[in-house]
């Protein structure tokens, strides 16, 4: 059994931040987003954007956090 370090924390720096453009609105606050490198991914709204009732429309530029383990999905954190 491995013992973890007491100062070791998981933070938001483990994510890859990219920018993209909303292409299509999907049901359930999901969006199809085209990234700068022309890949299309499925993204969802972050909790803070839901709380503040930020609306997105096709054509909006957004900032996305992606996990390095699954590059086909992401979380929209900011509308540019």
3D architecture notes:
This protein is about 5% helix and about 50% strand. The protein is built from 1 helix and 5 strands, in the order E-E-E-H-E-E. The protein has one helix at about 45-50, and strands at about 15-25, 30-35, 40-45, 60-65, 70-80. Strands 1-2-3-5-4 form a 5-stranded mixed beta barrel. Strand 4 (about 60-65) and strand 5 form a beta hairpin. It is globular and about 30 Å long.
Topology:
Elements: E1 16-26, E2 30-35, E3 40-45, H1 47-51, E4 61-67, E5 70-79
Parallel strand pairs: 3-5
Antiparallel strand pairs: 1-2, 1-4, 2-3, 4-5
Give the structure's gist in a few sentences.
The chain has one helix spanning 47-51, and strands at 16-26, 30-35, 40-45, 61-67, 70-79.
Structural class: mainly beta
Question: What is the rounded distance between the termini?
Answer: 45 Å
Largest beta sheet, briefly?
A: 5 strands, mixed, barrel
The H/E string reads: EEEHEE
| Beta-strand proportion | over 45%
Q: Largest sheet, order of strands side by side?
A: 1-2-3-5-4
Task: Tell me the number of helical segments per DSSP (H or I, 4 or more residues long).
Answer: 1
Work out the radius of gyration.
15 Å
Q: Give the strand tally.
A: 5
Please name the defining characteristics of this protein.
6% helix, mainly beta, 1 helix, 5 strands, five-stranded mixed β-barrel, 80 residues
């Amino acid at each position: 059994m491995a013992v973890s370090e007491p100062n070791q924390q998981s933070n938001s720096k483990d994510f890859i931040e990219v920018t993209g453009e909303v292409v299509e609105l999907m049901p359930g606050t999901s969006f199809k987003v085209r990234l700068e490198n022309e890949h299309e991914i499925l993204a969802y709204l972050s909790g803070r954007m839901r709380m503040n009732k930020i609306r997105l429309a096709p054509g909006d530029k957004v900032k996305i956090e992606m996990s390095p383990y699954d590059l086909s999905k992401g979380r929209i954190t900011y509308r540019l």
